[in-house]
Structures are given as C-alpha cells and as structure tokens.
Write a structure and sequence with these properties.
With 289 residues, the chain is an alpha/beta fold. Helix content is 40%, strand content 16%. It has a domain of 191 residues: Rossmann fold (3-Layer(aba) Sandwich). The structure holds NADP nicotinamide-adenine-dinucleotide phosphate. NADP nicotinamide-adenine-dinucleotide phosphate (NAP) binds next to helix 1, helix 3 and strand 4.
C-alpha cells in the first residue's frame, strides 16, 4: 500500500512518514511542485497511490499577506490538482487544515459544525483549500492547531524551539497573552491522522471534517511560562496584547477546537497540552544525554 505524503520535509509530513515507515511515499516541492497541475496528474496517475495525505502548505502566515498569489496557489489551487488526481484514481484525500479558519471570539471550543470566519490571506486560502478538498466526496479534512515537531526535527520552526532559543539570548521576553488556542505535539497529531484514515490498519473514519489537537486550552504567554517552568529556565516574561505585538497578519483571539467527534470514534487519546509539552521536553533531554 503506497500512501503519498506531501509536505514530507515539513513538521507534520515528516512525522507521518516516520510513523508510516515504508508505506509512505514522501514528496516535497523538490520532487513535485503541487502548484503544477500537469506534473501532479502525471505523477499521481503513474504512481496510483492508495491515499494522499496533503501536508504541503504555504505556512508563513505574515509573509502570506505580501504573497497572496503564491499562498493561494499552494493552499488552494494545489488542492484542486490533488482532487483532480484523486477523482481519476478513485483515491481518498486527507487535507490538513487549520484553527485559523475561525476568527470570532467564542465562549466554547469550536466544533466542526461552526461556520468558519477566516481573516487574513493564510486563513482565507486554507479555507479555500478545505472547500476544494470537500468537492471530492472521499475526503477527510482535518483541522489542527499550534504544531510543534519532535525535538529531533532539526528543520522544523515552531514556538517551543523559538522560546528555548530566545531564553538563552534575551533576559526578558514579551509574549502575547490574549490569543487562546491548543498547542499540539506533532507525533500525537500524526498518530490521530493515521487512525482517522485507517492508514496503519483499522477501519477508516467516515468521510468528512474533523478537529484534532491536544486537549485543553492556553495562551502563548501561559504556554511560554510552562515551557520555561518545566525546562527549569529563569526568564522574565511580560504579557502583551495582540495589538502590541502588531504582526502583519491577523490572528484568532480564540481558536480552541472541540475534538469530541474524533474521540467518539475511539482513536488514540490526545493528551492534555501540558502532558504533551512534558513529552517533548523529556525527549529533548534524552536526545542530549
Ligand atoms: N504549523 C502550525 O502550527 C499549523 C497549525 C495548524 C495547521 N497547520 C497545517 O498543518 C499542515 C502542516 O503544517 P507544517 O507546520 O507541517 O508545515 P511546514 O513545516 O511549513 O511544511 C509544509 C511543507 O510543504 C512544502 N511546500 C510548500 N509549497 C509546496 C509546493 N508548491 N509543492 C510541494 N510542497 C510544498 C514546504 O516546503 P518549503 O518549506 O520549501 O516551502 C514544506 O516542506 C499545513 O496544512 C498547515 O496549514 C499547521
């Protein structure tokens, strides 16, 4: 069984390939540029995969504001190309999406039934990608949030790694304290995705939309505080607002996702975000010793 994993040099794609082992056909832009429709069709029709998991994306949220055409080509048009290939092959597509499709403040975690309200180019193009994927009935669209890869993933850029680096560079850090989300550890998310697709055995989940993150909710400020507390680092942290941080692209003030639909299927339990962080830090320590 050949399972194509796109974005295979990225955080999530890389981990999926590790977990799928020799079932994975890892692809990144060097092997196949997904924005090239003809190349996508040629490649997929000759390979005839059993499933495609699309982890490729234009993920630079702020830069997307300056490169909307490129972001749209990767996050939306490329999904249309994959759908075209899937139709011809009768092949299931798993499309990875984001909590950023939500933007309005909410008093409870968002369920799959809540209507999206994307703000900013990255969010809008990811939402367009969801709609493109949904045009092919044999799809799983899975939204996740705040990904951080294993410490051994040298190429990955994420919040935990950035905080640990900044701790040794700066005596004081100013961190946004008014954005609520669920940081999610990539190995846990990858395991859940494989369960949903029945990609390592078991029955695949019904086609449709799923939310998949670690459990619980926090802010970037609290998350940073927990990273430093658990890592035994003494860093002076100052909470700031999103407005003070003044990033070019908008960020959701609240984008916690309700994972009840995933958990009702009996898949591997997603640990609480603090347990997930502890696992990351333990693995980092092991890697050093
Ligand atoms: N990171 C997060 O916190 C987060 C949160 C929620 C949802 N998500 C979603 O989760 C998925 C995986 O995210 P991630 O953090 O693993 O992303 P990532 O590390 O940025 O990996 C994405 C990969 O896709 C590749 N890519 C870009 N354009 C391509 C193209 N035209 N053709 C083929 N490959 C291309 C990138 O290559 P280059 O590096 O060379 O561009 C990169 O290797 C994405 O759908 C993302 O939107 C991520």
């Amino acid at each position: 069984m050949k399972i194509v994993v796109t974005g295979a040099k990225g955080q999530l794609g890389g981990e999926l390939c590790r977990q799928l082992d020799d079932k994975a056909v890892p692809l990144d832009i060097e092997e196949l540029d997904l924005t090239d429709r003809d190349a996508v069709l040629r490649f997929m029709l000759s390979l005839r995969p059993a499933a495609i998991v699309n982890c490729a994306a234009y993920t630079q949220v702020d830069q997307a504001e300056r490169e909307p055409d490129r972001a749209r080509a990767v996050n939306a048009a490329a999904v249309e190309h994959l759908v075209e290939a899937c139709r011809r092959l009768d092949c299931p597509l798993m499309q990875i999406s984001t909590d950023y499709v939500f933007s309005t403040p909410n008093s409870r975690p968002y369920s799959e039934k809540d209507p999206p309200s994307p703000r900013g180019i990255y969010a809008q193009t990811k939402w367009e990608g969801e709609r493109a994927a949904a045009a092919w009935p044999k799809h799983w669209i899975v939204r996740t949030c705040g990904l951080y890869a294993r410490p051994g993933d040298a190429r990955a850029k994420h919040f935990v790694k950035t905080m640990l680096r900044l701790a040794s560079e700066k005596p004081e850090l100013r961190i946004v304290a008014d954005q609520h989300c669920t940081p999610s550890y990539v190995p846990h998310v990858a395991r859940g995705l494989l369960f949903l697709g029945g990609l390592t055995g078991g029955t695949p989940a019904p086609w449709g939309l799923y939310h998949l993150t670690n459990r619980g909710a926090t802010t970037w400020y609290e998350f940073a505080a927990e990273i430093f507390r658990r890592a035994g680092l003494n860093v002076q942290l100052t909470p700031i607002t999103t407005a003070e941080y003044a990033a070019p692209a908008p960020r959701p003030a609240y984008s916690v996702l309700d994972t009840a639909k995933y958990h009702a299927l009996g898949g591997p339990a997603m640990p609480d975000w603090k347990e997930a962080l502890a696992e990351y830090l333990a693995e980092r320590e092991d890697g050093r010793s």
